[in-house]
Design a protein that fits this description.
Order of helices and strands: EHHEHEHEHEEEHEEEHHHHEHEEH
Shape: globular
Structural class: alpha/beta
Helix content: 25-40%
CATH topology of the largest domain: Aspartate Aminotransferase, domain 2
Number of domains: 2
Number of helices: 12
Number of strands: 13
Largest sheet: 7 strands, mixed
CATH class of the largest domain: Alpha Beta
CATH architecture of the largest domain: 3-Layer(aba) Sandwich
Strand content: 15-25%
Length: about 350
């Protein structure tokens, strides 16, 4: 097994000792013990604060893609209309996911190095297409960008679109999501990013309007949301819960709240700005365009000229640093530093940048 002294990948992030220790506890069965229900309720309350929502929060056993798929399948009938707003790999990908389960999808896309711009395009598409659901990604991790959500939420509300679905996997806990303020019905997160836990749980806030639709659709499957609607009241979950994973997730949430949400967001922003400034000073170029909003949780950088990504990656690893490549059109052209959660640490970023500067 290959390990590296310094990991700056954009998730799964390094798991702090305090969260790893959670796994040393012997738990009972979540199917039978009242202590599990207490833990689940506590984790839900903490995640509500981080999301900025009064809506219920569902916690599922599985990596974040489970929640992304489950929310689509639980809310859409075949031929339902979905307006997929894309500025990168994941935004476009959600539209493809919806199409694969039979939805009629209309895409409104921007370039991969851009963030959401001309809202008139979206408003026109909403008015003419009349979707049941609009989808967007808050942090486009492969591109290192952060999409604004407030105006989308306002349009959704003004034009009476039933559902607003947001992938906030790489932003929640590292940037304000403000799910209720932004009119988000399904806001999705994962444990392995800013929550600094292993990739074993996913979670999402679910509005009352979304629950009504979920009950109507009546989707059944491992990723289904319907069984969670009354799971706590009935003290019955659809499968044996991952007590360890939820305890680790809650530990990550408490870590953020003990620091204070505002301070946590400021730390991420400060570290991101420091990282970007130093990279530019080295002569490297950032992938996001000058008009795009860069993410506070991940920085995307063009591979330096004269290098191939495999060669550059191998040289970094030889010096003990592992970063992330990218996906889609950015594959082998862009690399990424993940400064989210436990890795939003200026000292760690300084060490990583020193290695990059050395091999340049």
């Amino acid at each position: 097994m290959q390990t590296y002294p310094l990991s700056m990948v954009p998730g799964p992030v390094s798991v702090p000792e305090e969260i790893r220790k959670v796994y040393l506890t012997d738990y009972g069965s979540g199917d039978f013990e009242p202590e599990f229900l207490e833990l689940y309720a506590k984790a839900e309350a903490n995640l509500q604060i981080i999301f900025g929502t009064k809506n219920s929060v569902v916690i599922q056993s599985g990596e974040a893609m489970l929640a992304l798929w489950g929310a689509l399948k639980s809310c859409l009938h075949p031929a339902d209309r979905v307006l997929a707003i894309g500025t990168g790999v994941f935004g476009r990908g959600i539209g493809e996911m919806a199409a694969s389960i039979g939805a009629e999808v209309k895409a409104v896309n921007w370039d991969y190095n851009e963030t959401i711009g001309d809202l008139a395009r979206i408003e026109t598409a909403m008015e003419t297409f009349k979707p049941r659901m609009i989808t967007a990604v808050h942090c486009e991790t492969p591109s290192g960008t952060l999409n604004p959500l407030a105006e989308l939420g306002k349009l959704k509300n003004d034009l009476h679109i039933p559902l607003f679905y947001v992938d906030a996997v790489s932003s929640v806990g590292g940037a304000p999501v403000q799910a209720d303020q932004n009119q988000i019905d399904l806001c999705l997160g994962g444990s392995q990013k800013c929550l600094s836990a292993p990739p074993s749980t996913c979670f999402l806030s679910v509005s009352d309007a979304a629950w009504d639709i979920i009950e109507q659709v009546d989707y059944a499957g491992y990723d289904a949301l319907k069984p969670f609607h009354f799971a706590q009241n009935r003290k019955y979950f659809p499968y044996t819960p991952d007590w360890y994973g939820i305890a680790a997730l809650n530990s990550g949430a408490e870590r953020i709240l003990n620091e204070g949400l505002t301070r946590c967001f400021e730390r991420h922003q400060h570290v991101a700005e420091f990282c970007r400034d130093k990279l530019v000073q080295m002569g490297l170029t950032l992938f996001p365009s000058a008009n795009a909003i860069p993410s506070p949780t991940v920085t995307a950088v063009n591979v330096p000229s004269g290098n191939t990504w495999p060669e550059f990656d191998a040289r970094l690893r030889k010096h003990g640093l592992v970063v992330g490549g990218s996906l889609g059109p950015m594959e082998n052209k862009v690399f990424r530093l993940g400064h989210m959660g436990s890795q939003a640490d200026k000292n760690l970023v300084e060490k990583a940048l020193a290695i990059i500067e050395k091999i340049l």
